[in-house]
Amino acid sequence: MTLESGWGYQQIGLNPQDVQLLESRKFSIEDIGRFLGVPSILLNDMSSSTGWGSGITQIIEGWYKLDLRPKVEYIAQSMSVNLIDAGKRSKTRVNFDFDALLQLSRKDRAEANQKEINSGTMTPNEARLLEGRLPKDGGDELLINTALQPIDQYLQDLASARGENNEV
């Protein structure tokens, strides 16, 4: 090779031992997941696990319970101690919201919302807001599964049936 201005040429190469060392330092997706504590399916590795929803759901729930949640609780406690003044700690809470990660399927969410509405633990409008829908008139009262009437009305009807004259 001919170079101008007195430049020289030197071939650069690696000997077989150096090449082998570099290859041994490569990490697979499984190794990275293992180091980070993340299931390989969440790193887009489909080689050793199912691609079906129920199997992935179980993997995510197990990862959340056994690995992610303990770490995040530790981080929240550390943030409370190190970032919040001692006088404000009793009034301030650090919390991570995992609802999106653990969100049920649409069908399961509808069933869960219906059970909570029927048992009087959630109003229809609260369920609508959870699903990203606008509230409806009359949807802010708790209902129970008799005839899906407002609890206040049910208790008044019950009191009047017993002959009581108590306001609820």
Residue windows where pLDDT falls under 50 for at least 5 positions: none
Q: Please give the radius of gyration in angstroms.
A: 30 Å
Task: Enumerate the strands of the largest sheet in spatial order, edge to edge or round the barrel.
Answer: 1-2
Shape: elongated
SSE arrangement, N to C: HHHHHEEH
First-residue to last-residue Cα separation:
99 Å
DSSP strand count: 2
Helix proportion? 40-55%
What quaternary form is this? single chain
Average per-residue pLDDT, rounded, comes to 81
Q: Per DSSP, what share of the residues sits in E-state strands of 2 or more residues?
A: under 5%
Summarize this entry quickly.
The chain is mainly alpha-helical. Helix content is 48%, strand content 2%. Strands 1-2 form a two-stranded antiparallel ribbon.
